[in-house]
Amino acid sequence: KQRRQKMAFRAHKLAASAAKSSFWRRVYYWNYYPRLGLLSDDIVNTTPIVEEALRRLPKDERYAREFRISRAISLSVNKTELPKEEWTLPENDEPYLTPYVDEVENEVNEKKWWKTLN
Question: I need a surface site. Which of 12, 42, 62, 84 has the fewest CB within 10 A?
């Protein structure tokens, strides 16, 4: 769990620094997921907390995520990438799922805390 959170945080941090520096932009594009049009929140491992966060996503964001993932799977199977103009830009790699994951984790922690009082 901690490792997954650290990886997602690093991906967002990398995206933020890539927007500022040409060196970090190159490092960002060394990852494979921007070349497939994925966002860093699209590659988070699925856990019960992430599943609940996905359930809480608005429909338009959920459909956009499903489209990006299905397109990435298709590209990966065909061993191709998107044209460079369609790669995910570091400036556009905003965390859309992380706030929901944080919200669910806070609720789980609060429930645990309430159980300790009983």
Answer: 84
For residues 12 and 40, the answer to whether their CB atoms sit within 8 Å is yes
Closest CA to 36 of 78, 91, 73: 73
Q: What is the per-residue pLDDT across 24-65, written as a single tens digit (0 to 9) for each?
A: 677 777 788 889 999 989 988 889 999 999 999 999 999 999
CA distances from 68 to 22, 61, 104, 108, 109 (A): 26, 11, 24, 29, 31
Q: State how far the alpha carbon of 50 is from the alpha carbons of 9, 16, 42, 44, 98, in Å.
A: 15, 22, 11, 8, 9
